[in-house]
């Protein structure tokens, strides 16, 4: 077996706030192999971006890693000093953030920003770097890149800015790319192009990708495995086909049911009733229990840990062997 | 739903244009003898939206959708054309003249991060329009109304005293939706309002928008790249291409037409039902033709769409390149087995089928 490129064990991310400590990520474990795409989906506010930010060491204070470990190629990288982390960030881990505007400096042209990043992290000369910048813009589907390269971020459309951020993350040929909603503002054809690009990097360079997105279509097409997050924890993680086709966790099942389809003519979309609890008052037991259709008394008492179910890992009491025994006894 | 009769149109846009000067700095122009470059982001579009109607606006990235939205709410002045709100031309009104229109005409921005003041608490962000337009009096009433709005977008009212950076991406998007709804607008311009939301929250927000429309008669201009969402929410849909409106049709007709380009875009992206990993993939270009605006929503000539040859465009900006190189889509994987996709989920026809288990 190859060593995982990234191994995350029992990661805990906390924010001290005015009203006590808030746990945004609560004991998350997963790994990503070289060349693999791990999709991460889940309820808005579930902790997907925080998990990604922790991996690249860009949690904004007062946020901090309060527990667990993060290993990149076997080396622990959590809580490294800033300089050491910065070097890893440039060369080994590329980041595509959820908000394209904050990743771009409005005062510099897109080309200046790309060239600077390329020159810092590779040994290309500025002239070669500029050619590479134009090439990268072309790769992410920016029309007329040799002209666009001299324009400023505000002169780009929303989707184009998002692609510039992707180009920035690819500059140094990183081993791992953390892509947080990289395609949200993109139409389907550009989206497909970006996805094809990411997949090609995985195939040809063994780049691994942690792909955070709410778009199940993108997940279905891109990811090898998928993790479903809810209230700071992983509810279900497994091969993409398994999770989409035979979702096990009641939250995943509800998520799949909320997707609108073109063929459908329904007045209203199906939705999971209620909303995610605030992180400061997560219910005891299973965090999903107030919204779950299949809740039973144990769910309100004990917290379910992930267990193996047909090749996936699912954190739900329904799949606990003791539940099956109890049901058999009841019958 | 039938196209809005212009008599009862809430919004009527005529010959709307917005050009941007994207020339290199003067010095470069002189030294390198480069001409001025004018980018025609919106180049003469007409449409009308009736009361209580939802008009979807679709088109590939960079075709000018956000520019149209910004023109309507007065963030850009038009280069030419008129924008009538209930018969009154609001194009190019001054800030002060625009003030009374502001309450009735709100916008949800594509970039929720940039549109929220980072130094304000969420409570104040959402309360600002309520206070500015005197929609509730007294601190308690304002707070109650803010709480209601936050609840509507599935946020907890007790989170009102936090700052925007303390929220996740999707939560921030919902804050901007709450703020847009705060002034009881009659017309809402929504630029990718649900793009950062997971599907279950998206379903909640779309249902909320429908309820508001039913109860209060709201009118929406709805921009999204997600065709399934547009299909779901819109009565009529306009398809933009290179700054022009190339087609307008009732949503039902548009999405029911077999082999329509919108399907083709969707089908090219997706796979056959049952495949999780598709064989066909749209963006096979990989920048081999850097001059071509890649991944365009291609319009096969056989289609009865009004695709004029777009005369009189200035060369220079990238669209000229796009025009020269425009050509038929290279379809890989052949047509969809059933003629049209069985459904598209988040842009992927395969998924709905997979998720349904057929
Ligand atoms: N600076 C902060 N202070 C306090 N809480 C925070 C802060 N930043 C994020 N949070 C909270 O942490 C939780 C996880 O946020 P995160 O950004 O990881 O969510 P997400 O899963 O990426 O959601 P989305 O899909 O909406 O982007 C959220 O509930 C958010 O409110
Ligand atoms: N302030 C500006 N200055 C110069 N060019 C601009 C400006 N705003 C937009 N443009 C250009 O106008 C064109 C249309 O942009 P617009 O933002 O309207 O696209 P869009 O259809 O909303 O795309 P997306 O789906 O990517 O958001 C783009 O080519 C963009 O680069
Ligand atoms: S553990 Fe119980 S409450 Fe939680 S998802 Fe499973 S059945 Fe539902
Ligand atoms: Mg996020
Ligand atoms: Mg836009």
Descriptors for this entry?
heterodimer; A: 331 residues; alpha/beta; Rossmann fold; 2 domains; eight-stranded mixed sheet; four-stranded antiparallel sheet; 36% helix; 23% strand; B: 358 residues; six-stranded mixed sheet; 18% strand; globular; disordered C terminus; binds adenosine-5'-triphosphate; binds iron/sulfur cluster; binds magnesium ion
Give a structural overview:
The complex is a heterodimer of chains A (331) and B (358). Helices cover 36% and strands 23% of the residues of chain A. Chain A is an alpha/beta fold and 331 residues long. Chain A has 2 domains: 6-92 and 175-191 and 200-276, Rossmann fold; 102-173, no CATH class. In chain A, the strands form 2 sheets. In chain A, strands 6-7-8-3-9-10-12-11 form an 8-stranded mixed beta sheet, sandwiched between helices. In chain A, helix 4 packs across helix 5 (126-139). The radius of gyration of chain A is 21 Å and the shape is globular. In chain A, 55% of the residues are buried. The model of chain A has no long low-confidence stretch (mean pLDDT 89). Chain B has 358 residues and is α/β, with parallel strands linked by helices. Chain B has a domain at 113-184. Chain B is 33% helix and 18% strand. Chain B has helices spanning 26-31, 65-72, 95-104, 122-132, 139-152, 169-182, 199-216, 227-233, 251-256, 261-269, 318-325, 349-356, and strands at residues 9-21, 38-50, 54-58, 80-85, 88-89, 105-108, 187-191, 219-223, 236-241, 244-250. In chain B, helix 4 (122-132) runs parallel beside helix 6 and helix 5 packs across helix 6. Residues 1-6 and 266-358 of chain B have low confidence and may be disordered. Chains A and B meet through helix 3, helix 5, helix 6, helix 7 and helix 8 of A and helix 6, helix 7, helix 8, helix 10 and helix 11 of B. The complex binds adenosine-5'-triphosphate (ATP) (2 copies), iron/sulfur cluster and magnesium ion (MG) (2 copies).
């Amino acid at each position: 077996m190859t060593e995982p490129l990234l191994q995350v064990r029992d990661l805990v991310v906390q924010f001290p706030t005015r009203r006590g400590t808030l746990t945004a990520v609560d004991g998350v474990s997963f790994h990503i192999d070289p060349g693999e795409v791990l999709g991460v989906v889940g309820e808005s506010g579930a902790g997907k971006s925080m998990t990604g930010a922790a991996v690249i060491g860009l949690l904004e204070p007062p946020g901090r890693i309060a527990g667990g470990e993060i290993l990149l190629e076997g080396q622990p990288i959590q809580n490294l000093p800033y300089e050491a982390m910065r070097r890893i960030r440039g060369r080994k881990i590329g980041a595509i953030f959820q908000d394209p505007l904050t990743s771009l400096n409005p005062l510099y042209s897109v080309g200046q920003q790309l060239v600077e990043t390329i020159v810092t992290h590779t040994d290309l000369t500025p002239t070669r770097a500029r050619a590479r910048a134009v090439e990268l813009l072309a790769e992410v589907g920016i029309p007329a890149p040799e002209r666009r390269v001299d324009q400023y971020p505000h002169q780009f459309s929303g989707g184009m800015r998002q692609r510039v951020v992707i180009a920035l993350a690819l500059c140094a040929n990183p081993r791992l790319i953390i892509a947080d909603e990289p395609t949200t503002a993109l139409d389907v054809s550009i989206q497909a192009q970006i996805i094809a690009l990411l997949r090609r990097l995985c195939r040809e360079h063994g780049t691994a990708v942690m792909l955070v997105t709410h778009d199940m279509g993108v997940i279905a097409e891109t990811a090898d495995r998928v993790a479903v997050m809810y209230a700071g924890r992983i509810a279900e993680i497994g091969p993409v086909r398994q999770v989409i086709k035979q979702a096990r966790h009641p939250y995943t099942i509800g998520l799949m049911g909320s997707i609108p389809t073109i063929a459908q003519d329904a007045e209203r979309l199906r939705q999971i009733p209620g909303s995610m609890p605030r992180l400061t008052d997560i219910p005891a037991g299973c965090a999903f229990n107030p919204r779950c259709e299949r809740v039973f008394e144990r769910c309100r008492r004990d917290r379910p840990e992930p267990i193996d179910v047909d090749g996936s890992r699912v954190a739900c009491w329904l799949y606990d062997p003791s539940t099956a025994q109890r049901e058999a006894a009841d019958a | 739903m039938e196209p809005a009769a212009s008599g009862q149109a809430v919004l009527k846009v005529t010959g709307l244009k917005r050009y941007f000067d994207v020339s290199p700095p003067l010095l470069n122009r002189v030294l390198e003898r480069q001409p001025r470059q004018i980018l025609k982001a919106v180049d003469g579009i007409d449409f009308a939206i009736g009361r209580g109607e939802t008009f979807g606006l679709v088109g590939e990235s960079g075709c000018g959708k956000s520019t149209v939205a910004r023109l309507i709410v007065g963030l850009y002045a038009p280069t030419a054309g008129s924008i009538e709100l209930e018969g009154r031309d609001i194009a190019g009104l001054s800030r002060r003249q625009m003030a009374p229109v502001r309450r009735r005409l709100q916008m949800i921005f594509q970039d929720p991060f940039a549109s929220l003041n980072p130094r304000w608490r969420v409570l104040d962000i959402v309360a600002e329009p309520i206070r500015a337009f005197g929609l509730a009096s007294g601190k308690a009433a304002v707070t109650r109304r803010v709480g209601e709005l936050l609840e509507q977008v599935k946020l907890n009212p007790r989170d009102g005293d936090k700052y925007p950076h303390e929220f996740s991406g999707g939560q921030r998007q919902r804050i901007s939706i709450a703020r847009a709804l705060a002034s009881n607008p009659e017309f809402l311009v929504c630029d990718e309002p649900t793009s950062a939301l997971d599907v279950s929250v998206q379903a909640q927000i779309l249902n909320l928008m429908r309820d508001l429309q039913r109860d209060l008669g709201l009118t929406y201009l709805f921009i999204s790249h997600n065709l399934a969402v547009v299909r779901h929410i819109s009565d009529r849909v306009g398809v933009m291409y290179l700054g022009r409106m190339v087609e307008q049709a009732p949503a039902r007709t548009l999405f029911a037409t077999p082999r329509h380009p919108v399907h083709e875009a969707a089908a090219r992206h997706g796979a056959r039902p049952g495949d999780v990993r598709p064989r066909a993939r749209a963006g096979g270009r990989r920048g081999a033709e850097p001059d071509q605006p890649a991944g365009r929503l291609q319009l096969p000539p056989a289609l009865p769409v009004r695709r004029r040859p777009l005369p009189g465009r200035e060369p220079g900006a990238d669209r000229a390149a796009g025009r020269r190189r425009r050509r038929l889509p290279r379809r890989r994987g052949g047509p969809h087995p059933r003629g049209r996709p069985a459904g598209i989920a988040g842009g992927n026809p395969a998924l709905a089928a997979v998720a349904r288990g057929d």
